[in-house]
Amino acid sequence: MGKLLIVGTVAFDAIETPFGKTDKILGGAATFIGLAASQFDVQSAIVSIVGDDFPQEYIDLLKNKNIDISSLEVVKGGKTFFWKGKYHNDLNSRDTLVTELNTLADFKPVVPENFKNAEVVMLGNLHPNIQMSVLDQMTKRPKLVILDTMNFWMDNALEELMQVIKRTDVITINDEEARQLTHEYSLVKAAEEIQKMGPKYVVIKKGEHGALLFHKEDVFFAPALPLEEVFDPTGAGDTFAGGFAGYLAATGNTSFNNLKNAVIHGSNLASFCVERFGTERMVALDRKQINKRMHQFKALTQFDIELQ
Q1: Pick from 212, 301, 224: which is nearest to 259 by CA?
Q2: What is the pTM of this model?
Q3: What is the DSSP string of 113-144?
Q4: Is pLDDT of 226 > 90?
């Protein structure tokens, strides 16, 4: 059983989409990553911070998914990170209405002793200095360091972000962010430029249009599964990252061919995440449902052809 160390937010979200709205519910990058990774045979731990307003039932939920939360710091008198957003009709764009850093503003991550030798480290979307601090605490170089970041850090902490990217094996970003980071419109050229920055592998997420995996001259494309119902895209990218990282930690194989499988597993789990608000769908998910949808993914992409 491989070890997976996850750093990211554990948070409250309030979400509005064309299909409804919620009050404060469980959210955060580390939460979605952890729930997705829990579907695989891995030991995982979350490094994050919350206030004492964070309900015990949410802590128990993470524990019950066999996620080590010994490094989930609970600040007495503190408030948990809160994000509120409203999605447009196409669900591809959104407006951030409220962002309250709260306890996250002074977060100093502490990696649990028994995870300082984790084979896979998943750096969820956070300030690059926090991500760097986690890498500095590892007692040996992880087999795979996976970085998820976003345009906010490119705008506000680019120098620090570039230092983290140098120490990364896999970066997962969306198409808009890949173009911003490299100033290249072509995603193929963008992936080439990012690999020069340090990562051996580049995953470019395209939302409902799937994901691309790049390594040297090799390219792999995984479609997104067409769904009848999409309620809430919040957490889909983090769920993808959690499925991707969880599968790789479970298999211990970091070859390009196995990363292809990881992309499919991540896409598969992300397709469940969007079917309900917040973490609701991920909490109730079981292996039978996952396997059934994996067969749908296979049918979606498999074909025979006779070349003339």
Answers
A1: 212
A2: 0.96
A3: GGGTT-SEEEE-SS-HHHHHHHHHH-SS--SE
A4: no
